[in-house]
Design brief:
Layout (H helix, E strand, L loop, with lengths): L2 H16 L3 H10 L2 H7 L1 H4 L4 H14 L7
Helix pairs in contact: 1-2, 1-5, 3-5
Amino acid sequence: YSLFSTVFESSNAFSEHFHISKRQAYRYLLTFKGMQFLYDCYEGAHTQSIEDAVADLTIICQRHGGALYD
């Protein structure tokens, strides 16, 4: 997997999980540091299941002010 595909797949899975548009998911992840997490932790993130990636992104974004909860 490349960094691009990891970011793309994680963002799409995040949008599906929370029933928001892909654009909304991208903006949310960008605003609340989810994208930065994927860039900084790519080596580990690309080996996780997509469900684990969404769970981690949710926690990271909540820690930075995001308000989406399971």
